[in-house]
C-alpha cells in the first residue's frame, strides 16, 4: 500500500533504459519511504547498477518518472522519442542531494581525505569552507577516520577509502543514500568495517538504496528487498518474504544458490 507522498523520499515509476538494441531496464518502479533501507539484489547483468545510476542521473533513462524528496524531475521527449531532462540545472541540483557511494571509491587521488569530503559542499553547494570542514571532521570521526583526514587515498586501505567515500556522500546532507555494491572491490577481511558503518546509518533512520551481494547483511538491515531479473522486478517485499518465502521461481533459485 503506497504511503502518502509526504512520507516518500523517492518514487520511481516505469523506468526503461536501452543501450542500442539491448534493453537493460524494462519498466522498473520503486518507492522508498523516509527511513527505508531497500536492498536491490539479482544476478550480474540483471540491471541493478544501471537502475541505481538512472536514479542518480549518471545514466539518463529512456522513459520513466522520478519524484525525489517531494520534487518531480522534469523530462521532455527528444527527437528520438526518448526522455531527456528538461532542465539540466534541476538534474545537477537533485544529484547533489543524492549521496552516491561507488564500488570503486572514486576519491580524488591528488586531494587529502578531508579535501575529498568537503569538495562538493564547498564548490557545488557553496557552503562556507569553515562550516564544511567542521562537518567533514565530524563525519570522518563517525566513520573512524578522523586521524586519517590529512592522508591521501593511496595511503589508505580499500576499507578506509570506502568509509571516506561514505563520509563524502554524507557531507551533502543527502535525501537518499545510494550504494552501488559498496563492498565488492574490498578484500574479505575489510568488508565488515564498511558494513558496520552502513548498518549504523540504517539504525539512524537514513533512507538508503543499496545494490549488494551481501545477502545476510541485506536480510538483516533492509526494510524491503527487490530482486531484479533480466531488467524486471521479479520479487519485492520485506526481507522475511523475499529470503524466506519468495513467490518467484527465479528468486527462489537465486536465494537457494546463494548466487554472488
SSE topology:
Elements: E1 8-19, E2 22-33, E3 37-41, H1 48-55, E4 63-68, E5 71-72, E6 75-77, E7 83-85, H2 88-96, E8 98-101, H3 113-123, H4 129-142, H5 158-170, E9 176-180, H6 188-204, E10 208-211, H7 215-221, E11 224-229, E12 232-237, H8 239-244, H9 249-257
Parallel strand pairs: 3-10, 3-11, 8-9, 9-10
Antiparallel strand pairs: 1-2, 1-4, 4-5, 6-7, 11-12
Helix pairs in contact: 3-4, 3-5, 4-5, 5-6
Key features?
4-stranded antiparallel beta sheet; 12 strands; 6-stranded mixed beta sheet; about 260 residues; 9 helices; about 35% helix; disordered N terminus; alpha/beta; about 25% strand
Describe what this molecule looks like in 3D.
- The chain is 36% helix and 26% strand.
- The protein has 260 residues and is an alpha/beta fold.
- The strands form 3 sheets. Strands 8-9-10-3-11-12 form a 6-stranded mixed β-sheet, with helices on both faces. A 4-stranded antiparallel β-sheet has the order 2-1-4-5, covered by helices on one side.
- Helix 3 packs across helix 4 and helix 5 (158-170) runs parallel beside helix 6 (188-204).
- The longest helix is centred in the last third of the chain and has 17 residues, at 188-204.
